[in-house]
Write a structure and sequence with these properties.
With about 280 residues, the chain is an alpha/beta fold. It folds into two domains: about 1-125, no CATH class; about 130-275, Rossmann fold (3-Layer(aba) Sandwich). The protein contains nine helices and nine strands. The chain has helices at about 25-45, 95-105, 110-120, 130-140, 165-180, 190-200, 235-245, 255-265, 275; strands at about 15-20, 50, 75, 85-90, 150-155, 185-190, 205, 250, 270. The strands form two sheets. It has a five-stranded parallel sheet, with helices on both faces. Strands 3-2-1-4 form a four-stranded parallel sheet, covered by helices on one side. Helix 8 links the parallel strand 8 and strand 9. Helix 1 crosses helix 3 (about 110-120), helix 2 crosses helix 3 and helix 7 (about 235-245) crosses helix 8 (about 255-265). The chain is globular, with a radius of gyration of 20 Å.
Length: about 280
């Protein structure tokens, strides 16, 4: 019967469970979708199920190697779990605003602002494993993040990096230094060449965490376009959450990593105006 057909990314007439099946995406996109779908399950007061498919963009790293399994989550691996006709089966990475427009608006008495409050409350479920939290705490004790500015410069696997070129970051860093000669910046990047370039240029202003980079022949590539991560996902997760402890975050178009870090700390997220960075003069 057609009524019993299970469809991906389609709202059933009656939702009795929410299933997020992550697919072909990096850490930031998965985390945004996790928090969004978890929020919707909480709103409906129905079971929340998640399956975290391994992918090169996420370093082939399982969820349980990064996070404690939240109490509100039924975490599944393998093929044991199967959704049914009353399961909202999400297999795309909808951020909260897109999710609201597609599944909530017109179907539920829940405004985007009200939904955002539930989404924001999901932060309580993000609990990195002890070794990652220890790394975060170590750097929070070492550097003054609360009085520093966050930079997320994604390069290795970002195909849209021309939208947020190095010159834009250079300009924004210089603006901040002009306003405050003692300005400090936390640089989070997935690319060793980028780290060295900016650290040499601003040695008295920038600091980073110590990352392990893949320097094999299939490792660092610049510019980007390769989906393979070149630093451990656990280190990336620590950097992402550390961005949330800075004053504000300058990030990249096409990358949810910096945006999620800013959201995590309730900080302002800043990206360039595409009319400027994609103008004929700059392309």
């Amino acid at each position: 019967m057609t009524g019993d057909i299970v469809q991906e990314n389609v709202l059933p007439k009656k939702v009795e469970s929410v299933f997020y099946h992550s697919f072909m995406s990096g850490l930031g996109n998965r985390m945004r979708a996790w928090i969004t779908t978890s929020a919707f399950a909480e709103y409906l007061n129905v079971p929340y199920i998640m399956k975290w498919r391994l992918d090169d963009a996420c370093g082939q790293t399982p969820f349980e190697d990064l996070f404690e399994i939240p109490e509100n989550m039924q975490y599944e691996t393998g093929r044991r779990y199967q959704p049914n006709a009353n399961t909202l089966w999400i297999k795309k990475n909808y951020p909260n605003n897109n999710f609201h427009a597609r599944f909530i608006e017109g179907n539920f008495d829940l405004t985007q602002k009200e939904f955002q409050k539930i989404v924001d409350n999901q932060k309580r479920h993000i609990k990195p494993l002890p070794f990652i939290q220890e790394r975060i705490d170590k750097y929070l004790n070492k550097y003054d993040f609360e009085n520093s500015i966050g930079l997320h410069i994604r390069r290795t696997d970002l195909k849209e990096q021309e939208k947020t070129p190095d010159w834009w970051f250079d300009r924004e860093i210089q603006k901040e230094i002009d306003q405050n000669p003692n300005a400090r910046f936390f640089l989070a990047t997935d690319n060793k060449w980028t780290e060295e370039k900016f650290m040499m240029k601003y040695p008295d202003h920038l600091f980073t965490t110590t990352c392990e980079y893949d320097e094999s022949e299939f490792g660092e590539r610049y510019p980007g376009g390769d989906r393979k991560r070149h630093s451990p996902t656990s280190e990336g997760l620590a950097d992402m959450l550390l961005l949330g402890s800075t004053l504000r975050v300058y990030g990249c178009h096409g990358s949810s990593f910096g945006r999620f870090g800013a959201w995590y700390g309730k900080r302002k997220f800043i990206i360039p105006d595409l009319k400027e960075t994609m103008s004929d003069e700059e392309v």
